[in-house]
Design brief:
Blueprint lengths: L23 H16 L7 E10 L3 E2 L2 E2 L6 E10 L3 E9 L6 E14 L4 E14 L8 E12 L2 E10 L3 E4 L2 E5 L2 E13 L2 E12 L7 E12 L2 E10 L11 E10 L1
Antiparallel strand pairs: 1-4, 1-16, 2-3, 4-5, 5-6, 6-7, 7-8, 8-9, 9-12, 10-11, 12-13, 13-14, 14-15, 15-16
Length: 259
């Protein structure tokens, strides 16, 4: 299962560490073992492979701009089987955060179907970055517990993520991998035909009380036509004023899903 940052989700197992100075191609090379594992998965169980290729006017992760007001391209690959397991691999271009130029997210998710309207999920994810300078400072991992449920008002999702090495950056610069808790809530509802509304809210609570926690939110519309999805989202973030990406902004996106 991949995360759509527009919906503030990013459910996303410890994979690798990209040393400083490595190029984006090295990140892709490190992804090869995971892709091989997916392709070599046993065929005795029903399996589903899928992917999404998307372009956005700005890459944002949990309220923080990862592309510095520049467009970003993203590729999400997913695998799931009838044993209620899913694996995900996400690749994206980034800019302006610790000299990083590429992002890789690898995740593993287990879900339990409670009934036809409610699902419980547990997932682990590792976020890695390649590029020059201090790109490796951005890496971290998290463990999330969440739920999905359908209601007359729409589709809801909520999660609590714990990260022991979440990086913290303030107006005074990089403070270290201090850890934190992330709460996220999203809502999705089809309005008419292929038009849908999405709203999300989240809070990042840093474990080091000397640094500020912050909230983020978004709301927007999307239009789906076959395998294509077009979206326009307004994003708000209460990160420290001196930090990059603090201002509200509009983000447009286009995505193509393949199976």
């Amino acid at each position: 299962m991949t995360r759509q940052e527009f919906r503030v989700s990013s459910g996303r197992a410890d994979a690798w560490r990209a040393p400083p100075g490595k190029t984006p191609s090295r990140v892709a090379a490190r992804c090869a073992p995971l892709l091989a594992a997916l392709l070599a998965a046993p065929t005795v169980h029903a399996q589903t492979y899928s992917g999404t290729l998307s372009v956005v006017t700005e890459r944002v992760s949990r309220g923080i701009s990862m592309s510095g007001d520049r467009p970003s391209a993203m590729l999400d690959l997913g695998y799931r089987d009838d044993r209620n397991w899913a694996l995900g691999l996400g690749l994206a271009t980034v800019h302006g955060q610790g000299d990083a130029t590429a992002e890789a997210i690898v995740s593993a998710t287990r879900w339990w179907q409670i009934d036809d309207k409610r699902t419980l999920t547990v997932s682990a994810a590792h976020y890695d970055y390649a590029g020059g300078g201090n790109a490796s400072r951005l890496r971290y991992a998290d463990l999330s517990v969440g739920g999905l449920w359908d209601s007359p008002t729409g589709q809801w999702a909520a999660s609590v993520s714990l990260s022991p090495d979440l990086p913290v950056t303030t107006g005074d610069g990089y403070q270290g991998h201090l850890g934190g808790t992330i709460l996220e809530l999203t809502w999705h509802r089809r309005l008419m035909g292929a038009v849908a509304a999405d709203v999300g809210w989240g809070v990042v609570d840093n474990w080091d009380r000397k640094t500020s926690s912050y909230t983020f939110a978004n709301g927007g519309l999307s239009y789906t036509a076959g395998a294509w999805r077009f979206s326009l989202v307004r994003l708000y973030s209460a990160v420290p004023p001196d930090a990059k990406g603090a201002r509200p902004r509009w983000i447009a996106g286009m995505a193509w899903t393949f199976k």
